[in-house]
Structure formats: structure tokens, C-alpha cells
Amino acid sequence: MKQLDRKIFSGIGYVSLSILALLCIFPFILVVSSSFTEETKIVTDGYQFIPTAFSTEAYSILFKYPQEMINAYLVTIGVTVTGTLLGLFLTSMTAYVLCRKDFKWRNKFSFFFFFTTLFSGGLVPWYLLIVNYLNMKDTPMALIVPMMLNVFYIIVMKSFMSSIPEAIIESAKIDGAGDFKIYLRLILPLSKPALATIGLFLALAYWNDWYNALLFISDEKLMPLQYYLYKMLGNMDGMRKAMMGAGAVVTTAIPTESLKMAMTVVATGPILLAYPFVQRYFVQGLTIGAVKG
């Protein structure tokens, strides 16, 4: 009887998860399909899962200047990789210091970090700090530094590292290892699930960031992908409004809707490839500590 109940429960679980997975996949299919659909068909019939009027006009406009697109990709990839690695290093190092019970100022520093989540200096002081005092305007650091540290990630990492047995650290000290060696050789390898999770969040934040580029970047050579697509879409909307005002051209001549979908595919496609590499660490993060020896 128990075995039958277990099979029924497993079957219900598989069916539920399959339905949920399909519901998550459908929007992506709709986006890809709409990006290959003629603009007039989208305007008249709406978005469809299977394009009835196939067209690559949106991608032709999107890649009209391939060198600019490639440059935007390279900038975004460089910022994402550099920012994620530096962010993980600083976040994990800060969390390790705060979880050490022999650090007498850890409560004061923890309060200092937590205080910044409640109050901020505001946009204008932040802008003046980046531009006038740190001189980061039109530099890659303006895209990396503002998002490098997140207090929430520090708290999550600190909680994870606090679950590591202190006996491991004490045995390493007995063997003559210093604090930095313990951090590199023991703490980081044991914190792979937390590092992978926070690393994915950091990578997503850097990949999708356009606001910092809007504020601090005027050099087109340093323009990241999201801000490049944002400007292109703004230019297309401006052209469409100008044509509507002139009244001489049909407004659907500019594929704004299909172009938005094509931009979504171009912007989200590469970062989706990062998830399979960290998926197994998510599973470890959920199951770690479930079995006590």
C-alpha cells in the first residue's frame, strides 16, 4: 500500500512539474516565434506561437551594423565576467570575516553593512561620487564598481559559511595555515553552492544592467549590450512617431514589435547558457546539511 501511495505521489509530482515547466517554456517560444513574424501580422492578429508570415526583417535591422553589436557584446561579456569574479571574491571575503567569532568587531561591521540597506545618500551624491571624486566616467569601472557588492549577498554568504564546522578551521590552524590560506584552500571550496548561486545573480545583474551606462557612459566604444539595444529601440520609436506626424508613411513599416522580441532573444540567449553550469550547485545548496554524520 505504501509503495502504491509513493507511486501515486511521484506521478502527481512529475505531472505538476511538467505542466509548470511547459508554462515557463511557452513565453520563450512565443518571444522567438514573434521575432520571426512580420510586423503587419503581429499588429492585425497578435502574437502567435507559430509564425504564419515568416520574416527576418527585425534581425536584419538589429544586425545592420554588426561591428557595433559585436563591440556591445564584448563590453557586456567583459564587464559581466570581471564584475562577477571581483564581486564573488569581495563578497565571500567579507562574509568570511563577519562569520569568524574571533573577530571582535564583527557585530559593528555587520551593523554598518545592514545600515546601508535602510538608508542611502541618494542619486545625486552617488553620481557626484562616481564622476567627480572617483573619476570613473567613461571608464569600464563605472559599469563594474557600483554593482560589485550587495549587502544581501553578503548576508546570504555569511549564513552559509557559518554552517561550516569550526573544527575544520581549527585543525587547519594547528597545521600552521594562515587566515588567507584557510579562506582560499578550505572555505571557498566548501562554499561552492553559495558561490555558484550568488555568482549567477551577479552575472544576471551585470548582463542586464543599462542604467549605469545611461548615467556614466557617453563613449560608444564602452556601450554595453542592454544600453545599445535600449538606444536602438528609442531611435526606432522616434522614427515611427516622426513618420506618424508626417502622415506620409504607414506606421507598420518599422517592425517595432518584432524588433522588441528580437532584442529579447539577442539579450537573453547567451546568459541562459550559464545556468546549466551552475544547476548542480543549486541542488547541492538545497541538500547540503540535510544528512548529519
Written description of the protein model:
It is a single chain. This protein is an all-alpha fold and 293 residues long. 73% of the residues lie in helices and 0% in strands. The protein is built from 15 helices and no strands. It is flat. The C terminus is likely disordered.
The beta-strand count equals: 0
Largest sheet: none
Binned strand content: under 5%
Count every helix, treating DSSP H or I runs of 4 or more residues as helices: 15
Distance between the termini: 31 Å
Broad structural category:
mainly alpha
Shape: flat
Element string (H = helix, E = strand):
HHHHHHHHHHHHHHH
Helix content: over 70%
Topology readout:
Elements: H1 2-35, H2 39-45, H3 57-62, H4 66-99, H5 106-115, H6 123-133, H7 141-144, H8 151-162, H9 166-174, H10 179-190, H11 192-208, H12 211-216, H13 225-246, H14 256-272, H15 275-287
